[in-house]
Amino acid sequence: MQYSVSDFANTHHATVRMLAGQGGLARPVKGVGILDYELVPGLKNRYQRVNFEEGQLVLSTFLYAKDDPFLIGEAVKYLVAKGTSGLVIKNVFHLQIPDAALRYANARNYPLLLVTSDDLFFDEVIGDIEDRVKLASSDETIQHELDAMRADGLTPPEVKEHALRIDPSLKDEFVVMFADPKEDLSDVTYGDIEEAYRRSDLSGPESVFCRCDGGLLLVISKDTEEPPDAHMLLDIVTSDVLGEAKAMSIGASETHYSLDEMALAMDEAQRASTMADRRNEGAIAYGDLGVLRAIMPHADSPSMKAYMNQVLGPIREFDDETGSHLDETLMAYFSCDEDTSRTAAELGQHANTIRYRMGKVAKITGLDYRAPSEREQLCLACRIATCLDIMAVAR
Question: How would you write the pLDDT of the chain (395 residues) with one tens digit per residue?
């Protein structure tokens, strides 16, 4: 993950405004530089070769230009040539910024941001940027933020705060995707996938790509009339990002409209990924899980568990005593949409065997799968069990 000029602008949106170069907001920021004396006549040749590096966000009060505003334009050209990411100006001398400098910055997509508040101090900005760059480059630190965001008892504003610490450019309309690899993800494979992501249409300052819980997490956010669509995003991830590394189960959350739902969206993506693995379907959107979406948030409640145990408990006790695996048959029957032939194929058994075993379930539970109302009760118990299993694996 990368920290960008956009992230800086969003973090300090109340105290800075864009002057020019909006097309360069996605430029990555790797550090901070200070421009105040380097272009002063007599010092220019001494410092210009060593003081600025590619990827730095440069801060300046224009001290060196207070007697010659023409030097502002020269500074912009110089910083562009050095490969810096942008220039943040605290115009303490109230200098007129030449139009030529603004035009040059726009032409080069080089962000110029003006500090609008005396309360923004450069020493604080430097510390903030260094912390943000460190966070963005550390898988361990990002994982810590993700874990903190999903902690029990957090208020919605606290969830949003953690989300914006991970990426200050995130917008309120977003979809979360989680890719769970079949095997451990090597650094080389991760690097190849990350590079493919950078080249894809999904990459940008308003999106997140990082390691999470042994897999890959993608957050795609937008601030447009067309909200992100989970199915379209899954298609792009599968075709353009994963490439040859397709031995993964991918899940996408529903589209959410507030960042305080980020933890919920992450749960949805991971649960959909687990279901994709169970069904061997590769990729599934949480919105396609049907009635499981209604059961999942409440599956671990005492009443739900009690109902499940009342129905499935006798079957599981019988299985423990006889090794019959009736529970497996029942679960497969409902995962195969109550189709006896599909269930037989799934379990490698004859259809008559499935019917016989379902008859045994009826004798044990008193619920006959051939009677609609009783089949419904069996199905609900199985759906609760499926949800609990998915939730246990996903978290």
Answer: 788 999 999 989 999 999 999 999 989 999 888 887 554 454 444 444 446 889 999 998 888 777 788 888 888 998 999 999 999 998 888 888 999 999 999 999 999 999 998 888 888 888 888 888 887 777 888 888 899 999 888 999 999 999 998 899 999 999 999 998 877 778 888 888 888 898 888 988 899 999 888 899 999 998 777 888 899 999 999 888 887 666 788 999 999 999 999 999 999 999 999 888 888 888 999 999 989 989 988 998 999 999 999 999 999 999 999 999 999 999 999 989 899 999 999 999 999 999 999 999 999 999 999 999 999 999 999 999 999 988 886 55
Half-sphere exposure of 98 (CA within 13 A, CB side): 17
Domain span at residue 209 reads 138-289
CATH number for position 16? 3.40.1390.20
Query: Can you tell me the distance from the alpha carbon of 111 to that of 106, in angstroms, rounded to the nearest whole number?
Result: 8
Domain of 172: which CATH number?
3.30.70
**Do the strands 86-89 and 215-222 form a parallel or antiparallel pair, or are they unpaired?**
unpaired
- 259 and 305 in a single domain? The answer is no
> What is the pTM (predicted TM-score) of this model?
0.75
**What values do phi and psi take at 103, rounded to 5?**
-65, -40
Instruction: Please list the residues that pair with 285 across neighbouring strands.
Output: 252
Give me the CATH number covering residue 338: 1.10.10.2840
83/209 same-domain check: no
Name residue 57's beta-bridge partners. 32, 86
